[in-house]
Amino acid sequence: MARMKQFIHRRFVLHYFALTVLFLLLFHFLKSYYLRDIHQTPYSIDEYVLLTGNFFDPSYLIIAKYSGYDYARYYLSFFVADMIFPLIYTFLFLSIISGMKKDSWKLLFWISIIGCCISDYLEDFSFVAFLSMRGDELAQSVAVLTAIKSLLFLVNVATGVGCLLYYWKTDKSINRIG
Q: What span, in angstroms and rounded, lies between the C-alpha atoms of 178 and 17?
């Protein structure tokens, strides 16, 4: 844990932000590689929840499983990148809150950030299991994990933006970020 702390500091915020943006662009461009039918399944399962607001809905997962995803390409591209991405955004959010003064708020946001990372990995592995199964028994579980991860991610983005605005307004050392 002590070694990890050296990577969590406000001075790394711009670096992690740049990596986050690069990964989001990578995910966008990978869609045309692993989605077979872009008309029937135009989004990744993560995007579907965030862009449509259909939380906890397994129907898109079932469509993606049977007609949308090219499994081999998904495993070799999106899945590999999605194993790295949670670490990047987790370090970004932890670096942003590292400058918080109130320990009680910091702990609350820390729990939200780590919860998002854990739920992202649970979602990834349960989706892979769902794709591998013959039936659709895991569809609802994957949908719930996707919704939880997406909601926590939105909370973390809002918290991160709020912290950065607060630092900018009250702490003129904001120039030391990056």
A: 10
Cα 77 from Cα 7, distance rounded (Å): 26
CA 76, CA 20: separation in Å to the nearest integer?
Answer: 20
Q: What are 114-173's pLDDT values in tens digits?
A: 999 999 999 999 999 999 999 999 999 999 999 999 999 999 999 999 988 888 888 655
Band of residue 90 on the pLDDT scale cut at 50, 70, 90: very high
- Please state the three-class secondary structure of the chain as a single string: CHHHHCCCCHHHHHHHHHHHHHHHHHHHHHHHHHECCCCCCCCCHHHHHHHHCCCCCCHHHHHHHHHHECHHHHHHCHHHHHHHHHHHHHHHHHHHHCCCCCHHHHHHHHHHHHHHHHHHHHHHHHHHHHHHCCCCCCHHHHHHHHHHHHHHHHHHHHHHHHHHHHHHHHCHHHHHCC
* Residues 163, 169: Cα–Cα separation, whole Å: 10
Q: How far apart are CA 66 and CA 59, in angstroms?
A: 11
Q: How many CB atoms lie within 10 A of CB 141?
A: 17
Distance from C-alpha of 21 to C-alpha of 89, rounded to nearest angstrom: 10
